[in-house]
């Protein structure tokens, strides 16, 4: 009976629905993390009109969330001025008090928090994953990723905008076991204390 039930579940997995849930879960967790980590006000999510541009900012921070069921690369595309403004806003300091190194560290920390939030969402659905070390690299390196687009993977690009700036966010998903995602839900998680402390 158990084997039959497992086969039945396998037969009814709607991969299109899973793709949409995955996209929404990632966007939701990334948005909440960035807004809390930088104390953004009056932010909006916007679709990217031309997702084939690939070069969305001078810099790019990225991190990998990976397990036996899925691999996800999360990326934030940004300019130095934007990252400095975000950290100054978070710490309530003058822009002149924030140097480039501090701003880059802030973006790395945001990647850590984003990956942790996504890992928690997966964990709630009994999907076990691990997290890599975050990296900051040139935005032009995205051209390397664009040359290796795999149509079997799920690509998503969107923007978070606010009066003082904008970030382009993107994700690349490789689902290795669709059955593992039947319990994944789009949740409205409440902010916790994780994004409220100083990072530096």
Helix content range: 25-40%
Shape: globular
SSE run = HHEEEHHEEHEE
Structural class: alpha+beta
Write down how many β-strands occur, each being a DSSP E stretch of 2 or more residues: 7
The radius of gyration is: 18 Å
Measured by DSSP, the beta-strand proportion falls in 15-25%
Mean pLDDT level: 83
H/I helix tally: 5
Low-confidence stretches: 6-11, 191-200
User: Major β-sheet, in short?
Assistant: 7 strands, antiparallel
End-to-end Cα distance: 55 Å
What does this structure look like?
It is a single chain. This protein has 200 residues and is an alpha+beta fold. 38% of the residues lie in helices and 24% in strands. It contains five helices and seven strands; from the N terminus they run ααβββααββαββ. It has helices at residues 2-11, 15-38, 80-91, 100-124, 142-146; strands spanning 44-47, 59-66, 70-78, 130-131, 135-138, 154-162, 165-175. Strands 1, 2, 3, 4, 5, 6 and 7 form a seven-stranded antiparallel sheet that branches. Strand 2 and strand 3 form a beta hairpin.
Task: Name its key features.
alpha+beta; 38% helix
Short account of what is shown:
By secondary structure, the chain is an alpha+beta fold. The protein has five helices and seven strands; from the N terminus they run H-H-E-E-E-H-H-E-E-H-E-E.
